[in-house]
Amino acid sequence: MDSLKLSTILLSLLSLAIITQAQDPTYLSHYCPNTTTFTTNSTYQANLNLLLSSLSSNSTRNINGFYNVSAGKDPDEVYGMFLCRGDVSNSVCRNCVNFATKDVLEKCPIEKVAMIWYDECELRYSNRNIFSTVDQDFTIFKSSPNNVTVQPESFNQLVETTIYDIAARAASAPSGAKKFAVQQANYTGVQKLYTLVQCTPDLSTAGCSRCLEGAISKLGNCCDRKQGGRVIFASCNFRYELYEFYNATAAAEAVPPPSPATPSPPPASGSKTSGKGKVDNILFNCHVVL
To answer: Between helices 152-171 and 205-216, what is the axis angle to 10°?
Structure first.
């Protein structure tokens, strides 16, 4: 009997571990150049910790899966943002961002500039202003190991045409909406092509278009004749597959009306406030795209 109870307990713990692991976001890549670093217990580190805390806490808000914020003041100001994939739920977005705020410090412990990508979200921060700016300095290529065998040249053309089509749609999304679009197209009589594009919502229509055009121009480097692939910049990305990798129902509802700005929470007891949320002499500015 004791042996049976022990086996049951071990099985339950194993199941819990598997479930917990399954909730972790799917890691893709990270980038943190060591050209600019900070020291332990520095003002920059304090500002970074404050910024990551803000990103984590704001991942619970229904703000179209995007939030950007700055903390501190020059020369130690930190700018950061997160972007969740346009079709993921609020809970998946929250879990991904919370995970990223911890994971990025493990992978980039002393770098002032860091970016980390998962299948469900991305998070980045920098010592320079990265808001409303097209960033194509670092590129991630991901592609299927398998090639298409039916009309490969026509397939390449279909991929490019379809992605260009939805890139224009995502870029023209109204202010406050997700710059996100998906589309399926017929490849063969039995196979469909599924495509997705997304920009950070703080980009202008022209900025989003320019970013996605730059990404699409990399198709030949990344994904020639491949059954699936993606190109990821800091400011935008696209992906295509021969299977439905996104939530089609959620994607169709991915452009809600702009949410009203919410007031800042009252300062904690004993803290000093002035100007734009200056807490304990650390300047903290929130930027929500509406």
So the answer is: 170
The per-residue pLDDT for range 14-45, each reduced to its tens digit, is 444 444 454 899 999 999 999 999 999 999 99
The 10s digit of each residue's pLDDT in 33-89 is 999 999 999 999 999 999 999 999 999 886 789 999 999 999 999 999 999 999 999
How many residues are recorded in the chain?
290
- 212 and 161, same domain (yes or no): yes
Element (H, E) at 232: strand 229-232
For residue 148, give every residue at least 6 positions away whose Cβ sits within 8 Å of its Cβ, in sequence order, or none.
155, 225, 226, 227, 242
pLDDT at 9: 44
For residues 272 and 23, what is the distance between their CA atoms, to the nearest angstrom? 39
Residue that has been written with the tokens 């571990």 in this structure: 17
Question: Residue 198's pLDDT is what?
Answer: 98
- Provide the angle, in degrees to the nearest 10, between the axes of the packed helices 43-58 and 90-107: 160
Looking at the structure, tell me whether residues 163 and 236 fall in a common domain: yes
Question: Is the distance from CB of 160 to CB of 121 less than 8 angstroms?
Answer: no
| Statement to judge: residues 226 and 278 lie in one domain | no
Same domain, 150 and 226: yes
- The Cα 141–Cα 213 span in angstroms is 15
The pair of structure tokens assigned to 228 is: 């699936």
Q: How far is CA 66 from CA 38, 236, 244, 249, 288, in A?
A: 27, 13, 24, 20, 8
Query: Residue 235 is part of which domain span?
Result: 140-243
> Sign of the CA dihedral 219, 221, 223, 224?
positive
Strand partners, 118: 27
Tokens linked to 282: 């650390």
Q: Same domain, yes or no, for 99 and 193?
A: no
Question: With a cut of 50, which residues of the chain have pLDDT below it?
Answer: 1, 4-20, 22, 256-290
